[in-house]
């Protein structure tokens, strides 16, 4: 019986894996047409000055509204797009769309666009960025590209060349999910970042982990300040977390406490006199998008 159960379990696990692989294959297939079918949209989450509570810009976050499955998280479909070689096309579309939307926003508001390591590895990236700027009329300093530490795992001279070409265009660069990758601090010496985004995992944690996380955040802020970079704390959901980040002198805040990512059309209704001053809202008042 034990043997039988073992076999049964093995069969169960492999069936599960098969199901997952099949699922992925189906999603990949649907993703190929998602763009042309208009199922993808770029939503925008405000990034807020920690003290001023003034919105300084928005992060562009891709949304997929699947006709049968409903909303699918980018945490699921971006890796699929990367594996299936769909990211160059998806990434370029998102970048162009984000520039077009941001060019209509008032004032100096910036847009931050996530750039996959696969896009970053391509020699074509600077030309695509230049074209997206020219086509939309967006000033280069209003575009920020969010890059993760994983780009430093690639060939160093290629990486340096890409940074130099992007900086020549005048766009801003942000280091996303800082502290979660495998890289050393060495690259901060030369990589021309304007901002470090402190990963959500440092904001969370129990009270016990909290003290350690705060020590790490304080060190990141000190490092960023010394190198002339701004900081954004991601994933701020509570007033307590907001207060802690202010105390630690983090310059910018992003999180559900202020707002989730909202559709482009909805954004326009929030601006007043070219500004969007935003109040933090308790979880009870959160709208789900
Ligand atoms: P990310 O770049 O680190 O983006 C921040 C993520 O944190 C977003 O998840 C955002 O909705 C979420 N977030 C913001 N505030 C809070 C909060 O208070 N609490 C919690 N729990 N989460 C918060 P989202 O939109 O699901 O995106 C997940 C990841 O997918 C992004 O992480 C990014 O790596 C990737 N992604 C999204 N859009 C794109 C895109 O256009 N291109 C590429 N290459 N990747 C993208
Ligand atoms: Mg990001
Ligand atoms: Mg991030
Ligand atoms: Mg993240």
UniProtKB/TrEMBL annotation:
Transmembrane segments: none annotated. Residues 24-275 form the EAL domain. It comes from the Bacteria. This is Diguanylate cyclase (GGDEF)-like protein/PAS domain S-box-containing protein. It comes from Sphingomonas kyeonggiensis. The lineage of its organism: Bacteria, Pseudomonadati, Pseudomonadota, Alphaproteobacteria, Sphingomonadales. The chain holds residues 292 to 580 of 709 of the full protein.
């Amino acid at each position: 019986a034990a043997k039988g159960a073992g076999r049964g379990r093995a069969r169960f696990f492999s069936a599960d894996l098969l199901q997952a692989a099949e699922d992925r294959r189906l999603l990949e297939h649907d993703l190929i047409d998602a763009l042309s079918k208009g199922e993808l949209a770029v939503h925008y989450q405000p990034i807020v000055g920690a003290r001023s509570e003034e919105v300084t810009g928005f992060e562009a976050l891709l949304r997929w509204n699947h006709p049968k499955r409903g909303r699918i998280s980018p945490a699921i479909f971006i890796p699929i797009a990367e594996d299936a070689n769909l990211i160059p096309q998806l990434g370029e579309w998102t970048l162009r769309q984000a520039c077009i939307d941001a060019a209509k926003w008032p004032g100096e508001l910036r847009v931050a666009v996530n750039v996959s390591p696969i896009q970053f590895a391509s020699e074509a990236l600077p030309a695509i960025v230049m074209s997206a700027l020219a086509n939309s009329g967006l000033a280069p300093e209003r575009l920020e590209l969010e890059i993760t530490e994983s780009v430093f795992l690639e060939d160093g001279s290629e990486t340096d060349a890409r940074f130099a070409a992007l900086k020549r265009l005048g766009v801003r660069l942000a280091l996303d999910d800082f502290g979660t990758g495998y890289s050393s601090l060495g690259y901060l010496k030369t990589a021309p970042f304007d901002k470090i985004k402190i990963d959500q995992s440092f904001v969370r944690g129990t009270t016990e982990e909290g003290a350690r996380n705060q020590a790490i955040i304080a060190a990141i802020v000190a490092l960023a300040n010394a190198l002339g970079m701004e900081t954004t704390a991601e994933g701020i959901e509570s007033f307590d977390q907001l207060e802690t980040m202010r105390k630690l002198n983090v310059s910018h805040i992003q999180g559900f406490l202020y707002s989730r990512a909202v559709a482009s059309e909805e954004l326009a209704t929030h601006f007043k006199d070219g500004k969007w001053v935003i109040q933090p809202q308790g979880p009870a008042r959160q709208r789900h998008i």
